[in-house]
Design goal:
Length: 334
C-alpha cells in the first residue's frame, strides 16, 4: 500500500499557500535594514547602528502559554501574535533597549492557510506598533504531536541599546520608589490557574457575560498583552531610571527580585491601586489564597519603574501628561 506525505499528515501545498498569504502582510513591517524577502533560509538585517558608539544587542525568546487554550475555545487567533511580540518587547525594554527585528515559530497539528494568516496578522500588528521588522519564521506541521486545530507559538526578538544606557538595576538603593503602570488583564501569565477556576470550578464558558467584567469571560481573558514601549521610551530620553521590571510569571515580588540587588528588600503597598475585576473574580470563585494571587498574577500592574525618590513626582507627572495611569506602589528598603 502506497502512502503519501500528505496522507501521513503533512500538507506541503498548504504550507506554500500559507507563505503566499502572509508575505505581503509581513513586508509591511520591513525597515531599511532588512535585506531579504520572506521565504529564504535566513533573514538578513544590516548591522548599521547609526549614531550608536558602543551598540549592544539584546535578545529574548518567549511564548504565550495556555492563553492559547482560550483562543482555541473562542476560535479567535488574530491577537495571539500581538501578545507574543508585546511580551518580548517589554522584556528587552527592561534593559533600555529598542526592538530591531522579530522571528516567529508556529507549530500546528494541520496547516490551514487562513488560520496561519490570522495568527501572523497579530505578529505584524505587534511589530508595526513597535517599529521592528518581522524578518523570518518557521511554520511546522506536526499532526502526530498537536491535536487537530491546535498550535503553539514562540518568538525571538532582537533589540539594541547603547552600552552606557543599559539598565541593570545594580544601582537600586534604599529609598528608591516603585512606580506601577497598569496592565490590560492577565497578559500572558496565570492562565492555567484562571482556566481551572473559571471553567472547571465555576462552570463558566468563554461566552458567559458578566456584569462586573462588562464583557464575556473569553474577551476578558483574551485581552491583548500590553506593550509599554511608547510609554517608557520617552522616559529613557529624559530621566535616569534605575530599574524596570516586566511583571510576568512570578508576580510583582518575583519579577522585582530579578533586578533588585541582594541585601535590599521590597516593600509593596498592596492597597495603593485598584485590582481589575478579572483578578477579583478569579480569587472569589476559586477561593485562591492571597499569597498565591500575588505569586501568580500581575494583579493590574504590568510594569514597574524604579526611580530615585527625588525624581518620582517628575516621572509620574511626565507619564500622566501622556495619559498614562501610574501609581506609587512601594519602595526599596535596606
Amino acid at each position: 500500500m502506497s502512502l503519501t506525505y500528505k496522507e501521513a499528515g503533512v500538507d506541503i501545498e498548504a504550507g506554500e499557500k500559507s507563505v503566499q498569504k502572509i508575505k505581503e502582510m509581513i513586508r509591511q513591517t520591513f525597515r531599511p535594514e532588512v535585506l531579504t524577502d520572506i521565504g529564504l533560509f535566513g533573514g538578513m538585517f544590516r548591522a548599521d547602528f547609526g549614531t550608536f558608539k558602543k551598540p549592544v544587542l539584546v535578545s529574548t525568546v518567549d511564548g504565550v502559554g495556555t492563553k492559547l487554550k482560550v483562543a482555541f475555545l473562542m476560535n479567535r487567533h488574530n491577537t495571539i501574535g500581538e501578545d507574543l511580540v508585546n511580551h518580548c518587547v517589554n522584556d528587552i525594554l527592561t534593559t533600555g533597549a529598542n526592538p530591531l527585528f522579530f522571528l516567529d515559530y508556529l507549530a500546528m497539528g494541520n496547516v490551514h492557510p487562513d488560520r496561519v494568516a490570522e495568527i501572523v496578522s497579530g505578529f505584524v500588528r505587534g511589530c508595526r506598533e513597535a517599529g521592528c521588522a518581522l524578518i523570518g519564521g518557521e511554520t511546522a506541521e506536526m499532526a502526530d504531536f498537536y491535536p487537530f486545530g491546535e498550535y503553539d507559538v514562540a518568538g525571538t526578538l532582537i533589540g539594541i541599546v547603547e552600552e552606557s544606557g543599559i539598565i541593570t538595576g545594580k544601582n537600586i538603593s534604599p529609598g528608591d520608589v516603585l512606580l506601577g503602570l497598569s496592565s490590560n488583564g492577565l497578559h500572558t501569565n496565570g492562565y492555567t490557574l484562571a482556566r481551572k477556576v473559571l471553567f472547571e470550578q465555576a462552570g463558566l464558558t468563554v461566552d458567559t457575560y458578566l456584569k462586573e467584567l462588562q464583557q464575556t469571560v473569553g474577551e476578558a481573558l483574551l485581552a491583548v498583552h500590553r506593550s509599554y514601549l511608547k510609554a517608557v521610551r520617552p522616559l529613557l530620553e529624559k530621566f535616569k531610571l534605575k530599574g524596570i521590571a516586566h511583571i510576568t510569571g512570578g508576580g510583582i515580588i518575583g519579577n522585582l527580585s530579578r533586578i533588585v540587588p541582594k541585601g535590599r528588600s521590597i516593600r509593596i503597598n498592596w492597597q495603593s491601586w485598584e485590582r481589575p475585576a478579572i483578578f477579583k473574580l478569579i480569587q472569589k470563585l476559586g477561593s485562591v489564597p492571597e499569597e498565591d494571587m500575588r505569586r501568580t498574577f500581575n494583579l493590574g500592574v504590568g510594569m514597574i519603574l524604579i526611580v530615585e525618590s527625588e525624581e518620582a513626582d517628575s516621572v509620574s507627572a511626565f507619564l500622566q501628561s501622556a495619559g498614562e495611569a501610574v501609581r506609587r506602589i512601594g519602595e526599596i528598603r535596606s
